[in-house]
Write a structure and sequence with these properties.
The complex is a heterodimer of chains A (144) and B (138).
Chain A (H helix, E strand, L loop, with lengths): L1 E13 L8 H8 L8 E13 L11 H16 L2 E2 H4 L2 H4 L4 H19 L6 E10 L2 E6 L5
Parallel strand pairs in A: 1-3
Antiparallel strand pairs in A: 1-2, 2-4, 4-5
Helix pairs in contact in A: 2-5
Chain B lengths: L1 E12 L8 H8 L8 E12 L12 H16 L2 E2 H4 L10 H12 L9 E10 L2 E5 L5
Parallel strand pairs in B: 1-3
Antiparallel strand pairs in B: 1-2, 2-4, 4-5
The chains are: A alpha+beta (144), B alpha+beta (138).
Protein backbone atom coordinates (compact mmCIF):
# COMPACT_ATOMS: atom_id res chain seq x y z
CA UNK A 1 0.00 0.00 0.00
CA UNK A 2 1.27 3.41 -1.00
CA UNK A 3 0.23 6.91 -0.01
CA UNK A 4 0.42 9.57 -2.69
CA UNK A 5 0.15 13.23 -1.71
CA UNK A 6 -0.48 16.08 -4.06
CA UNK A 7 -0.10 19.75 -3.10
CA UNK A 8 -2.25 22.54 -4.51
CA UNK A 9 -2.65 26.23 -3.78
CA UNK A 10 -5.47 28.72 -3.67
CA UNK A 11 -5.91 32.25 -2.40
CA UNK A 12 -9.07 33.34 -0.66
CA UNK A 13 -10.43 35.82 1.84
CA UNK A 14 -12.45 35.20 4.96
CA UNK A 15 -13.60 36.75 8.19
CA UNK A 16 -13.74 34.84 11.44
CA UNK A 17 -16.95 35.81 13.17
CA UNK A 18 -19.15 33.47 15.21
CA UNK A 19 -22.83 34.32 14.82
CA UNK A 20 -23.59 33.07 18.32
CA UNK A 21 -21.24 35.57 19.96
CA UNK A 22 -21.53 39.33 20.43
CA UNK A 23 -19.34 41.94 18.69
CA UNK A 24 -17.02 42.39 21.65
CA UNK A 25 -16.67 38.64 22.21
CA UNK A 26 -15.84 38.10 18.54
CA UNK A 27 -13.17 40.78 18.63
CA UNK A 28 -11.75 39.29 21.79
CA UNK A 29 -11.78 35.73 20.41
CA UNK A 30 -10.59 36.25 16.84
CA UNK A 31 -8.60 39.48 17.13
CA UNK A 32 -7.47 40.79 13.74
CA UNK A 33 -9.20 37.85 12.01
CA UNK A 34 -12.49 39.47 13.02
CA UNK A 35 -11.85 42.70 11.04
CA UNK A 36 -15.22 43.45 9.45
CA UNK A 37 -14.19 43.48 5.79
CA UNK A 38 -12.18 40.27 5.96
CA UNK A 39 -8.65 39.44 4.93
CA UNK A 40 -6.93 36.80 2.80
CA UNK A 41 -4.38 34.01 2.73
CA UNK A 42 -2.36 32.01 0.24
CA UNK A 43 -3.53 28.58 1.27
CA UNK A 44 -1.74 25.33 0.52
CA UNK A 45 -3.76 22.17 0.50
CA UNK A 46 -2.38 18.63 0.48
CA UNK A 47 -4.61 15.77 -0.60
CA UNK A 48 -3.41 12.26 0.37
CA UNK A 49 -4.67 9.15 -1.33
CA UNK A 50 -3.94 5.53 -0.45
CA UNK A 51 -3.99 2.43 -2.60
CA UNK A 52 -2.14 -0.52 -4.06
CA UNK A 53 -0.09 -0.07 -7.23
CA UNK A 54 -1.90 -0.62 -10.48
CA UNK A 55 0.22 -3.08 -12.41
CA UNK A 56 -0.33 -1.47 -15.79
CA UNK A 57 0.94 1.96 -14.77
CA UNK A 58 3.02 1.37 -11.63
CA UNK A 59 0.96 4.06 -9.97
CA UNK A 60 -1.44 4.14 -7.03
CA UNK A 61 -3.63 6.89 -8.44
CA UNK A 62 -4.27 8.50 -11.80
CA UNK A 63 -3.05 12.03 -11.04
CA UNK A 64 -5.00 13.53 -13.91
CA UNK A 65 -8.23 12.23 -12.38
CA UNK A 66 -7.23 13.38 -8.89
CA UNK A 67 -6.19 16.82 -10.12
CA UNK A 68 -9.49 17.18 -11.99
CA UNK A 69 -11.55 16.17 -8.97
CA UNK A 70 -9.69 18.53 -6.62
CA UNK A 71 -9.84 21.35 -9.14
CA UNK A 72 -13.59 21.04 -9.74
CA UNK A 73 -14.69 20.36 -6.17
CA UNK A 74 -12.25 22.39 -4.10
CA UNK A 75 -10.01 24.80 -5.98
CA UNK A 76 -12.66 26.29 -8.24
CA UNK A 77 -14.98 26.75 -5.26
CA UNK A 78 -12.36 28.46 -3.07
CA UNK A 79 -9.93 30.17 -5.47
CA UNK A 80 -10.11 33.96 -5.26
CA UNK A 81 -13.37 33.77 -3.31
CA UNK A 82 -14.66 35.42 -0.23
CA UNK A 83 -15.29 32.18 1.66
CA UNK A 84 -17.96 33.63 3.95
CA UNK A 85 -19.97 35.08 1.08
CA UNK A 86 -19.41 32.64 -1.72
CA UNK A 87 -19.12 29.14 -0.23
CA UNK A 88 -22.51 27.99 1.09
CA UNK A 89 -21.00 25.90 3.92
CA UNK A 90 -19.55 29.04 5.47
CA UNK A 91 -22.85 30.87 5.80
CA UNK A 92 -23.39 28.73 8.90
CA UNK A 93 -19.89 27.58 9.83
CA UNK A 94 -17.00 29.93 10.61
CA UNK A 95 -14.39 29.60 7.81
CA UNK A 96 -11.51 28.64 10.06
CA UNK A 97 -8.92 26.40 8.45
CA UNK A 98 -10.29 23.56 10.59
CA UNK A 99 -13.68 23.98 8.92
CA UNK A 100 -12.09 24.60 5.54
CA UNK A 101 -10.23 21.27 5.72
CA UNK A 102 -13.43 19.53 6.80
CA UNK A 103 -15.36 21.08 3.93
CA UNK A 104 -12.66 20.00 1.44
CA UNK A 105 -12.88 16.40 2.73
CA UNK A 106 -16.68 16.53 2.54
CA UNK A 107 -16.59 17.75 -1.06
CA UNK A 108 -14.02 15.17 -2.13
CA UNK A 109 -15.82 12.29 -0.42
CA UNK A 110 -19.20 13.24 -1.89
CA UNK A 111 -17.79 13.14 -5.41
CA UNK A 112 -15.16 10.43 -4.97
CA UNK A 113 -16.93 7.39 -6.42
CA UNK A 114 -17.97 9.28 -9.55
CA UNK A 115 -14.25 9.61 -10.37
CA UNK A 116 -12.82 6.54 -8.59
CA UNK A 117 -15.55 3.87 -8.67
CA UNK A 118 -13.24 0.97 -7.72
CA UNK A 119 -12.27 -0.09 -4.20
CA UNK A 120 -8.98 1.83 -4.53
CA UNK A 121 -7.60 4.45 -4.38
CA UNK A 122 -9.23 5.92 -1.29
CA UNK A 123 -9.02 9.42 0.13
CA UNK A 124 -6.92 9.29 3.28
CA UNK A 125 -6.64 12.89 4.46
CA UNK A 126 -6.56 16.55 3.61
CA UNK A 127 -4.15 19.01 5.15
CA UNK A 128 -4.49 22.78 4.83
CA UNK A 129 -1.80 25.31 5.62
CA UNK A 130 -3.32 28.75 6.18
CA UNK A 131 0.15 30.22 6.43
CA UNK A 132 3.48 28.43 6.50
CA UNK A 133 3.22 28.35 10.30
CA UNK A 134 -0.19 26.68 10.73
CA UNK A 135 -1.35 23.32 9.39
CA UNK A 136 -4.74 21.63 9.81
CA UNK A 137 -5.17 17.96 8.96
CA UNK A 138 -8.42 16.01 8.69
CA UNK A 139 -8.64 12.26 8.05
CA UNK A 140 -11.29 11.12 5.61
CA UNK A 141 -12.85 8.84 8.23
CA UNK A 142 -13.55 11.83 10.49
CA UNK A 143 -16.14 13.18 8.04
CA UNK A 144 -19.46 11.57 7.11
CA UNK B 1 10.42 7.89 18.64
CA UNK B 2 10.79 8.77 14.99
CA UNK B 3 13.80 10.48 13.44
CA UNK B 4 13.96 11.64 9.83
CA UNK B 5 16.91 12.39 7.59
CA UNK B 6 16.64 14.12 4.22
CA UNK B 7 18.87 13.63 1.18
CA UNK B 8 18.54 14.75 -2.41
CA UNK B 9 19.37 13.23 -5.73
CA UNK B 10 18.75 14.23 -9.32
CA UNK B 11 17.93 11.68 -11.98
CA UNK B 12 16.17 11.23 -15.28
CA UNK B 13 13.50 8.71 -16.12
CA UNK B 14 10.76 7.87 -18.56
CA UNK B 15 7.42 6.37 -17.60
CA UNK B 16 6.30 3.86 -20.22
CA UNK B 17 4.80 0.41 -20.15
CA UNK B 18 6.40 -1.57 -23.02
CA UNK B 19 3.27 -3.71 -23.31
CA UNK B 20 1.23 -0.66 -24.33
CA UNK B 21 1.09 1.30 -27.57
CA UNK B 22 2.50 4.81 -28.01
CA UNK B 23 -1.00 6.27 -27.75
CA UNK B 24 -1.82 4.28 -24.63
CA UNK B 25 1.43 5.35 -22.98
CA UNK B 26 0.76 8.99 -23.84
CA UNK B 27 -2.76 8.72 -22.45
CA UNK B 28 -1.53 7.05 -19.25
CA UNK B 29 1.62 9.01 -18.49
CA UNK B 30 1.30 12.22 -20.51
CA UNK B 31 4.57 14.08 -20.98
CA UNK B 32 6.32 11.60 -18.69
CA UNK B 33 6.08 9.06 -21.53
CA UNK B 34 8.45 11.09 -23.75
CA UNK B 35 10.86 8.31 -24.82
CA UNK B 36 13.95 10.50 -24.47
CA UNK B 37 13.27 10.94 -20.77
CA UNK B 38 13.20 13.91 -18.45
CA UNK B 39 14.51 14.60 -14.96
CA UNK B 40 13.66 15.66 -11.43
CA UNK B 41 15.39 16.90 -8.31
CA UNK B 42 14.16 14.19 -6.00
CA UNK B 43 14.06 14.67 -2.26
CA UNK B 44 14.14 11.59 -0.07
CA UNK B 45 13.09 11.59 3.58
CA UNK B 46 13.90 8.44 5.50
CA UNK B 47 12.28 7.93 8.89
CA UNK B 48 13.54 5.53 11.55
CA UNK B 49 11.72 4.26 14.60
CA UNK B 50 13.79 3.66 17.70
CA UNK B 51 14.68 4.41 21.29
CA UNK B 52 17.66 6.63 22.14
CA UNK B 53 20.69 4.74 23.36
CA UNK B 54 21.04 5.50 27.10
CA UNK B 55 24.74 6.30 26.72
CA UNK B 56 24.82 8.32 23.49
CA UNK B 57 21.29 9.75 23.62
CA UNK B 58 20.92 8.90 19.94
CA UNK B 59 18.56 6.52 18.15
CA UNK B 60 21.18 6.03 15.48
CA UNK B 61 24.29 8.10 14.80
CA UNK B 62 23.14 10.37 11.97
CA UNK B 63 26.59 10.06 10.41
CA UNK B 64 25.99 6.31 10.11
CA UNK B 65 22.55 6.92 8.63
CA UNK B 66 23.96 9.48 6.19
CA UNK B 67 26.60 6.99 5.04
CA UNK B 68 23.97 4.29 4.51
CA UNK B 69 21.73 6.64 2.52
CA UNK B 70 24.63 7.82 0.38
CA UNK B 71 25.97 4.34 -0.26
CA UNK B 72 22.68 2.53 -0.86
CA UNK B 73 20.62 5.22 -2.58
CA UNK B 74 22.43 8.37 -3.65
CA UNK B 75 25.40 6.62 -5.26
CA UNK B 76 23.03 4.37 -7.17
CA UNK B 77 20.48 7.01 -8.20
CA UNK B 78 22.20 10.38 -8.43
CA UNK B 79 22.72 11.73 -11.95
CA UNK B 80 21.56 8.48 -13.53
CA UNK B 81 18.95 7.65 -16.14
CA UNK B 82 16.96 5.31 -13.92
CA UNK B 83 15.51 3.13 -16.70
CA UNK B 84 18.94 2.38 -18.17
CA UNK B 85 21.29 2.49 -15.21
CA UNK B 86 19.44 1.53 -12.06
CA UNK B 87 17.88 -1.92 -11.76
CA UNK B 88 15.02 -2.83 -11.29
CA UNK B 89 13.90 0.09 -13.46
CA UNK B 90 14.94 -1.74 -16.60
CA UNK B 91 11.72 -3.69 -16.05
CA UNK B 92 9.80 -1.72 -13.39
CA UNK B 93 8.31 1.65 -14.36
CA UNK B 94 10.16 4.34 -12.32
CA UNK B 95 7.08 6.08 -10.96
CA UNK B 96 7.61 7.77 -7.60
CA UNK B 97 5.59 4.92 -6.08
CA UNK B 98 8.01 2.30 -7.41
CA UNK B 99 11.03 4.44 -6.51
CA UNK B 100 9.82 4.63 -2.89
CA UNK B 101 9.38 0.84 -2.79
CA UNK B 102 12.82 0.23 -4.31
CA UNK B 103 14.49 2.60 -1.82
CA UNK B 104 12.69 0.83 1.01
CA UNK B 105 13.99 -2.51 -0.28
CA UNK B 106 17.54 -1.17 -0.55
CA UNK B 107 17.54 0.33 2.95
CA UNK B 108 15.62 -2.29 4.90
CA UNK B 109 18.49 -4.81 5.27
CA UNK B 110 20.73 -2.06 6.69
CA UNK B 111 18.16 -0.52 8.99
CA UNK B 112 16.44 -3.44 10.61
CA UNK B 113 18.41 -3.72 13.85
CA UNK B 114 17.09 -3.11 17.33
CA UNK B 115 18.02 0.58 17.06
CA UNK B 116 16.88 2.75 14.22
CA UNK B 117 14.50 0.45 12.43
CA UNK B 118 13.28 1.69 9.05
CA UNK B 119 9.80 3.14 9.52
CA UNK B 120 8.97 5.04 6.35
CA UNK B 121 10.30 6.37 3.08
CA UNK B 122 9.02 9.59 1.50
CA UNK B 123 10.00 10.48 -2.05
CA UNK B 124 9.27 13.94 -3.44
CA UNK B 125 9.29 13.90 -7.21
CA UNK B 126 8.48 17.62 -7.16
CA UNK B 127 7.56 19.89 -4.23
CA UNK B 128 3.91 19.26 -5.15
CA UNK B 129 3.97 15.46 -5.44
CA UNK B 130 5.26 12.98 -2.91
CA UNK B 131 4.79 9.33 -2.04
CA UNK B 132 5.01 7.58 1.34
CA UNK B 133 5.78 3.90 1.75
CA UNK B 134 5.80 2.10 5.08
CA UNK B 135 6.47 -1.42 3.83
CA UNK B 136 3.88 -4.10 3.43
CA UNK B 137 1.65 -4.56 6.45
CA UNK B 138 2.78 -7.68 8.32
Amino acid sequence: MIRVTRRYRFSASHRLHAAGLGEAENRELYGKCNSPFGHGHNYEIEVSVRGPLEERSGRAVDLELLDGLVRRQVLEAFEHRNLNEEVPAFRAAVPTSENLAREAVRRLKQNWTAVFPAEWPRLEKVSIAETSRNTFEVSAHEIE
Amino acid sequence: MLITRKVEFSASHVCRNPALTEEENRALFGAAANPHGHGHNYVLEVTLDGTPDPVTGMVLDLKVLKDILNREVVEAYDHRFLNYEVPPFDRVIPTPENIAIDIWNRLRPHLSGARGRLYGVRVYETPDLYVDYFGEAP
